[in-house]
């Protein structure tokens, strides 16, 4: 079986601005990979090249074994795309557009099933014009998954969702992942990446500056922070050996350490360090060191 | 799933969206019918006894122009506006990301135009015949010409509308699409008798398709003796078809060369 996504030394410039600058990564069969990065880092350009909407200037791109720039209908049948909010469906109902979209695929999911799992059952026959932002996003997601594609692209899928809707969406994506769907997810929400992704890639300044499991990215270096109350103030200590430090503190205090908390370095902190205000690539080296 | 089945499904979807858009229904579908009714009533007393003796009335004077305007409203205006909006709002990009064959999308548009144009035509003819008592041609040749002008006009309006959509976006459609078409209606003999326009304006109008569709329709619905009021004193059936065919093919070539699925790139 071919690796669903292989990208090597990808370059894409708009005028003199390099949007993607030597980016490379692979996504394995059945994996869910989250791509993080600030606006303008090259995330959307990269994903749109993978989806076949843009052509790369140079570099090697293989998606399901095919260069997306030359992809045909059979290839499109194997890909599902949830783009950033698609308007223009205002005059239709969710059922109408989901059923029509399903027709284009060889082996689509059942329309009622898709309406059910995306939580659109009560709005299935209402004009999309009258739906809330979160409900419209559910329609976008329904259109992306109805084709029963083996590779699914999700571009900031939960924008506009309330916390319960996000949880529902997460279980939907997990279920798709368990069925073997390969998923590429771009998001601004780090908790979403941690909740869904087997690996997380961080793009900054057109390059993949980090790629690993959430715990690898969150857990490298001096990862834990201890904090406790001492002498009327809050004391903190950064350490990569938290257990040993706690034992020392415990013996110093002769038992319970007042107000002790232990926090691990989070993915969010790694992310912010990697995309830091200066050269993102330079910062990546610091973190890795 | 075969392409024709998908094209038919797209046609149904397009028709639903068209029918649910009140502006579209009023300004492209009903507009010529409303105008025919208004002109038929308002100008009823302007027809002199000689003209009445030839079987003319106000509605018969305006019917060819209203049919011609309707052809371009349901084809050119509808498509230039809707494709421009769909390109801008991401609909085209979304469709491009599915296995829907592009030709099914375009055939869906063609289906929309054909059905709305035919329905509008039927409505115009029924109102003209039964409300305003307009005398209909009886010779089969006239109806054959009529069908030819109608089809080549609709096809041209369709290809030109899709091509023209590249020049517009949702904020500019009124100025870029509706405005020029309105001017064209005024100088192409839709609202005024074409013979009453200054000849330099007639020459300008003769570059564009609407003048020819209107002239073709006049050749069908006016008494034969009225041909003398045309620019060349004849109906120019062959030339009308040729000019409209050239416009239709040019529109198709433009579509193939310039069509974009996304706003940029």
UniProtKB/TrEMBL annotation, chain A:
The cellular location(s) given in this protein's UniProt record come to:
Cell membrane
Top-rank taxon:
Bacteria
UniProt keywords, alphabetically: Antibiotic resistance, ATP-binding, Nucleotide-binding, Transport
User: Pfam families given for it?
Assistant: ABC_tran
Q: How does it sit in the membrane?
A: Peripheral membrane protein
Q: Which Gene3D superfamilies match?
A: P-loop containing nucleotide triphosphate hydrolases
Gene Ontology molecular function: ATP binding; ATP hydrolysis activity
Tagged with keyword Metal-binding: no
Q: Which GO terms describe its biological process?
A: response to antibiotic
Residue span, ABC transporter domain: 5-230
Tell me what this protein is called. Putative ABC transporter ATP-binding protein
Which GO cellular component terms, listed alphabetically, does the Swiss-Prot or TrEMBL entry include? Answer: plasma membrane
InterPro entries, sorted: AAA+_ATPase, ABC_transporter-like_ATP-bd, ABC_transporter-like_CS, ABC_transporter_ATP-binding, P-loop_NTPase
TrEMBL record, chain B:
Which Gene Ontology molecular function entries are recorded, alphabetically? ABC-type transporter activity
Return the protein name: Transport permease protein
**Family, per the entry?**
Belongs to the ABC-2 integral membrane protein family.
Query: Which sequence ranges are marked TM in the entry?
Result: 24-43, 63-85, 106-131, 143-163, 175-194, 241-259
Query: How far does the signal peptide extend, from start to end residue?
Result: none
InterPro entries associated with the record = ABC2_TM, ABC2_TM_bact-type, ABC_2_transport, Nod_factor_ABC_transporter
Source domain of life: Bacteria
Where primarily located?
membrane
Q: Where is the ABC transmembrane type-2 domain?
A: 23-262
Membrane topology qualifier:
Multi-pass membrane protein
What's one Pfam family the UniProt record gives for this protein? Answer: ABC2_membrane
For the keyword Transport, the answer is: yes
